[in-house]
Amino acid sequence: MPCGLFHTAYQTDERIYKSIWVKAWLVAFGLFLLLLPLFVRDYVLYISNMIYIFVVGAIGLNILTGFTGQISIGHGAFMAVGAYASAILTTKLGLPFWISLPCAGFFAAFTGMIFGIPSLRIKGLYLAIATLAAQFIIEYTIIHWERLTNGITGMSVPSPSLFGFVFDTDKKFYYLLLGFAALAVITGRNLFRTRVGRAFIAIRDRDISAELIGVDIFKYKLLAFGISSFYAGVAGSLWGHYTNVITPEHFTIVLSIDYLAMIIVGGLGSILGTVLGVIFMILIPEFLTTVAVLLKSTFGEITTLISAIKGLVFGLTIVLFLLFEPDGLSEIWRRTRDYWNLWPFSYR
Amino acid sequence: MALILSVNNIQVVYKDVILVLKGMSLDVEEGKIITILGNNGAGKTTTLKAISGILKSEDGEVTDGSIEFCGERIDKKYSEEIVRMGIFQVMEGRRVVEDMTVHENLLAGAHTQRDRKKREEDLEKVYDYFPRLVERRKVMAGYISGGEQQMLVLGRALMSRPKLLLLDEPSMGLSPLMVAEIFRIIQRINSEHGVSILLVEQNARLALSVAFHGYVMENGRIVLDDTVEKLMENKDVKEFYLGLSEVGKAKSYRDVKHYKRRKRWLT
Amino acid sequence: MPENIAFLAQLVLTGIVLGSVYSLVALGFVLIYKSTSILNFAQGELLMFGAYVCLTFIVGFQVPYIWAFLLTLAFSFILGVMVERVMLRPMIGKPIISIIMLTIALSVVLRSLMQIFWGTETKVFPPTFSDVPIRFLGLFIAEIHLFSLIFAVACVILFVRFFKFSSAGLAMRVTAFDQQIAQTLGINIKRIFALSWAISAIVSSIGGIILGNINGINNSLAAMGLKVFPCIILGGLDSVVGAIVGGFFIGVLENLAGGYLDPVFGGGVKDVAPFVFLVIMLMIKPYGLFGKVHIERL
C-alpha cells in the first residue's frame, strides 16, 4: 500500500479513484453485490432493496443539506410526490414505468423548487421551518385530493415491465435497484467535480461571499432543491413500484426525519457517508426486531414495546452521533482507513 | 505600594493556534490609574479579557503564566466569579443592551449585588455622577447618543461596586468635549471611590494625563514600562504616540524603522 | 344573534381559548430561542410530559389536583435542566443543523420513552368541570374552556412579569441580547441556559395539562409542539410579545379556517391552514411582526 498520495496536477487531485487500489477494492465490492442474490434469502434481498432505494433518496437530501447547506425537513414529502406521480401516471394514464419514473422525478423536482422559492429571502432556521411546512402541506394535499390520489386508502401500483419482462420478485428488483443506486452514487459523486457542485459548496460555506464572486445564489439554491427532490422523486417512484401499494401514511414527517438521520449519522457532505448512513439506519431497526424475536420467550411484553424501543434507539443513536461523532460514519471510516493506510507508521 | 492586580508573564492563545500574548507582565497599584498604550493588534484588549475571564467565550486560553488579584489566582476562574471578586471590564464599543432601557441596563450591572438597599444607593450615586442619564432613564439604550452610552456603560460598571475597573478605549468614537468629560468622570471615580483603573487607550496624550504609570505594548509584549513622567519624556513615545517629532528636519529612512534604531530589551 | 355572526363569534371564542394555550407554549419556545438560539423541536414532547406526569400523580398516586400540578412543575423543571445539561450544553458552538437535529432526536427519544411508560391509548383526566356550557353574550363556552383561558392568560401575564421585572428575568434578557455582555456583568450564562430550558419545560407542561384536560392525552399532543412554529413565525422568533400575539392569532385562524373551509376541502383544514399561513408569512415578512431583522455581516 502506498504511504502517501502526492498530487502534482489538478486532474489527478480531482480524480475520484485516488489510487489503483481503491479501484480494485470497488470492483471486488461490485462483484460481491452482483453475486449476492445467489446465496442469500429473499428477506436479505428485501433489506438490500430498501437500502438501494433509500440511498437514492438520501443522496438527494445530502446534496441539498450536506453540500448546499439548506436544511430540509420535508424530504419525505418530495418522495411522496414522486411515488404518487409515478403511481398516477402508470395507473390512470397507463404510461409505462420507464416514462413515469423520470416524470415522477421531474414532478418532485418541480415541487421541490416551488418550496425552494422562499430561500431567496430566508435562510438557515427559517428555511428549515418552511420545509417543515412543505411536509405538512404536501401531506394534506395528498390525503385530501381524493380524486387523484384515493386519499387515505392509498393506491396500488403495478410492477414495472420492460418488453414483457416483469419485475415482480425481490431478486429481479435487486438488480434494477442496484443499478439505480449505483447511478445515484456515481452522479452524486461527479456532481461535485462540476461547476454546479462547486457552486453548491460555495453557497454552503459562505453564501454572501459566493454571491460576491459571481455565483447566482438564488438560481443555484433552486437548482439544489430541484436536483435533491428529483432524487427523492425517483426513490419514491421506485419504492411505489416495488411495494405495489402506497398510502399517505408512508410519507409522514417521520420519513423526513429518517432521511435526516441517515445523512447525519452517515456524514453531511459525503456521498460515501450517505451510503454508510443508510445502511446503518436501516439495519438497526432490523437488528432490534431480530433481538426482540429472540427475547420474546423471556420478555413477553417486548413485542408491544418494540416500536417504542426502536424509536428510543433511533433517537439515541442520533444523539450519540451528534455529541461524539458529528462528522458521522464517513469520518470514522476515514480515520480507520488512514490508520491502516499508514500502519505501522503513525504520521502521514 | 500594594498591588491589587499582578499579571505574571502570561501567554494567551486563541483557537489553540493563534498566539497573541507572548509573555507579558504588568502590575496595577491599588487606587491608581494605570494605562496600556499601543497600536491596533498589540494585544491590549486580549490582556483585559484574560484578566476578566471572558477569553473562554472567544475560544482563548491563558496557556502560561498567572494572574493574581488581591493575592488570589484568577486566570483559571470563570468570569462570573471574577466579577463577584471585584473586577469589572467595560468593553470597547459602548456595549449597551440595546433592547433595554437605560434604567434596566444599570440594574443589570448590579447583577452581583444581592442587597436591595445597596443597589438603590448605587443607583442614586450613578445618577448623581451622570445627570444626563436621569432624563434618559426610560429610553431604550439603543437610541441614546454615543456619549450617553459611554456614560451608561461606566455607570453600569459602578453598580457592581468594583475594586478594579478595566476600561477599554473609552474615548473611541466620541467628540473631544465628550471625551474630556468622560475622562474627568474617570478621574472622579478613581479619586472619590478609590477604584483602581486599568485603562487601555489609543488617545495616548489623554491617557498619560490621567494615569500614574504606563505600559506600552507591541506585538503581544510590553516594550516600555515606566512612570508617566518618564514616558512623556521618552523619545520613542513622543514620536509614535504623542506626535512630537523633530519638525523641519530631514528624516532618514533608517530612523523611521524604529526597530532598527535601538535595541529593545525584550523583542 | 343572527346565525352566521353567532357561528363566526363562536369560532373566534374557541379560537381564543386554544390560542391562549398556544401563546403559553410559544412563550416557552421563544424563551429558549432568545437565550440560546436553539429551535426546540421537542417542545411538543414537553407538553406531553407535563400532561402525563400530572395524570399519573392524580390517578396513580391519588394526589389532590393542586399538589399534582405543583409536583409536575417541579418535575418539568428538573427535566428542563437535565436536557440542557446533558444534551445541549455540549453542542454550544456546533453548526445549526446539528442543533436542529439534536432537538428533533430529543423529541423522538422523549416520545419513545413516554410511549414505553404510558402506552399509546388516549388517557383522560378525571372530570373536574361540569358539562353544562356557560352562556356568554349569546354564545356558549364550556366551563373547562373558560377556566383554561383564564388560567393560561394568568400564566402568560405572570411569565411576562417575571421576564421584565425580576432580576433573573433581567439577566436572561441580557444573555439573550449578547452573551458576552452578560459575562462581563457577572452573569453565569450556563445557569441562564438551564433556567431557560427549565422555565420552557414548565410552561409547556402547563399547556399540556390544560390541553390534556380538554382533549385527552395522546400522541397528537406532541403535534401541538409543531403548531407553535406558525405562531412564532408570525410573531417573530425572538419576540415575547410576538409569541403571545402569534399564539392567539393562530388559534383563531385555525378555528376560522376549519369552520369555513372544512366543507370545501373535506376536513382537516384546521391542521394545515397554520402552515400555509406560515409559508405566506415567510414570503412577505420572514422576521415576523415583532422580530428583529437580522443583518448579516461578513
Q: What distance lies between the first and last C-alpha atoms of chain A, to the nearest angstrom?
A: 13 Å
CATH architecture of chain A: Orthogonal Bundle
Rounded to the nearest angstrom, the radius of gyration of chain A is 21 Å
Strand order of the largest sheet of chain C: 1-2
Approximate strand percentage of chain C: under 5%
Question: What is the string of helix and strand elements of chain C?
Answer: HHHHEEHHHHHHH
Class derived from helix and strand content of chain A: mainly alpha
What would your notes on this structure say?
In chain A, 72% of the residues lie in helices and 2% in strands. Chain A has 348 residues and is mainly α. Helices cover 38% and strands 26% of the residues of chain B. Chain B has helices at residues 44-52, 79-85, 102-109, 116-129, 131-135, 146-158, 176-193, 204-210, 228-233, 235-240, 253-256, 258-261, and strands spanning 3-14, 18-29, 33-38, 60-69, 72-73, 87-90, 164-168, 196-200, 213-218, 221-227. In chain B, the strands form two sheets. Chain B has a six-stranded mixed β-sheet with strand order 6-7-8-3-9-10, with helices on both faces. Chain C has a two-stranded antiparallel ribbon with strand order 1-2. In chain C, strand 1 and strand 2 (139-141) form a beta hairpin. Chains in contact: A-C, B-C. The B-C interface holds B 52-54, 57, 78-80, 82-84, 88-91, 95, 97-100, 104, 107-109, 111-112, 156, 160 and C 167, 170-171, 173-174, 177-181, 183-188.
Summary of the model, kept short:
The complex is a heterotrimer of chains A (348), B (267) and C (298). With 267 residues, chain B is an alpha/beta fold.
Feature tags:
heterotrimer; B: 267 residues; alpha/beta; Rossmann fold; 2 domains; six-stranded mixed beta sheet; four-stranded antiparallel beta sheet; 38% helix; globular; C: 298 residues; mainly alpha; 11 helices; 2 strands
Topology:
The complex is a heterotrimer of chains A (348), B (267) and C (298).
Chain A: H1 10-14, H2 20-35, H3 42-67, H4 75-91, H5 97-116, H6 125-144, H7 146-149, E1 155-156, E2 161-162, E3 165-166, H8 170-191, H9 195-212, H10 217-243, E4 245-246, H11 253-266, H12 271-295, H13 302-324, H14 328-342
Chain B: E1 3-14, E2 18-29, E3 33-38, H1 44-52, E4 60-69, E5 72-73, H2 79-85, E6 87-90, H3 102-109, H4 116-129, H5 131-135, H6 146-158, E7 164-168, H7 176-193, E8 196-200, H8 204-210, E9 213-218, E10 221-227, H9 228-233, H10 235-240, H11 253-256, H12 258-261
Parallel strand pairs in B: 3-8, 3-9, 6-7, 7-8
Antiparallel strand pairs in B: 1-2, 1-4, 4-5, 9-10
Helix pairs in contact in B: 3-6
Chain C: H1 3-36, H2 43-60, H3 65-88, H4 96-118, E1 134-136, E2 139-141, H5 143-165, H6 167-177, H7 179-184, H8 189-215, H9 220-235, H10 240-265, H11 269-284
Antiparallel strand pairs in C: 1-2
Helix pairs in contact in C: 1-5, 1-6, 1-8, 1-9, 1-10, 2-3, 2-4, 2-8, 2-9, 3-8, 5-6, 5-8, 6-8, 9-10, 9-11, 10-11
